[in-house]
Amino acid sequence: MQVLLYWDPRHAAVLTKTLMRLAAAFELSVDVLVTAADSAALDRAALPALRVKRLPATGAPETDIVRACGQRPYDLVITPPADRPGLLRMILGSRIGHLVRQAPATIWIARPGADAIQRIVVGVSGGPQTAHDIRLTALLARAFGAQVTLVHVVSQLPLIYSGLGVQPDWLANDRMAKVEPGLARLREAGELLAAASIPHELVVREGLVDEELLAVANGAVGGRRADLLVLGAHAPSVHTPVDYYVDIAEQVAQAAPIATLVVHAESDWSRWSAVYTGPSLEAGQAGF
Length: 288
Description:
This protein is α/β, with parallel strands linked by helices. It contains 11 helices and 10 strands. It has helices at residues 12-25, 39-44, 61-71, 86-92, 95-102, 129-144, 167-172, 174-179, 181-195, 209-218, 246-255; strands spanning 2-6, 29-34, 51-56, 76-79, 107-109, 119-123, 147-154, 200-206, 228-234, 260-264. The protein has a 10-stranded mixed β-sheet, sandwiched between helices. Strand 2 (29-34), helix 2 (39-44) and strand 3 (51-56) form a beta-alpha-beta unit. Helix 3 (61-71) packs parallel to helix 5 (95-102), helix 6 packs parallel to helix 9 (181-195) and helix 10 (209-218) crosses helix 11 (246-255). The two termini are 20 Å apart.
């Protein structure tokens, strides 16, 4: 697959680790956006032996990345976690937020974390984007041997709401699934992962979507911190239907303390050639 990496020597360790982790699981061709001042630091970095092409960067990551994505279709963009400090962010906006809103690609925000990706947390919305996100999550979980936690947050409570009560009862209640579409999507996502033989769990929370999703990812709920948080979707086109998580993807991506993957609504996984040997996850197989 074709990867675009924005090189920032301040985050050389986490960027290199992220790239090596992906290179161990997938066949990559990498374009690196690097400024002239940072080119020497890139030479010193212990990047894996990949096909790497250097592209000139101006020093404004969000601008360079969006421009590069407009010139070539990338399967994945890897960006450093650096964002503007508080006052500058208020005046100029968030770099991460800009990418989430504008870049026509799936974005991996690299952050320090565990040596291996063993647990992936996925935010499940009530819209059609969820199945798209789960297809990519399944590829990653299969490649890394990870378990998946699917999370849906009930934030806009129906009039007949009387508390979550026993969670399995909610998930099995067809009447509630009609009132709260996210519950139906959660069940469907679980069925997709079960068909692919990927270990997973379903979690329903109530409250503010960003707070509850981050609590699960942080380990405040469930007691185990995730290694990767998957969000979908962001769609730069005004003609693309708005999904449940579009409005909060930016703030969650900024606040998450772990690696975060923001899945683009129109991404295609056909070029994600896995290095691992196992059952195919091509479209139309294993429930996909």
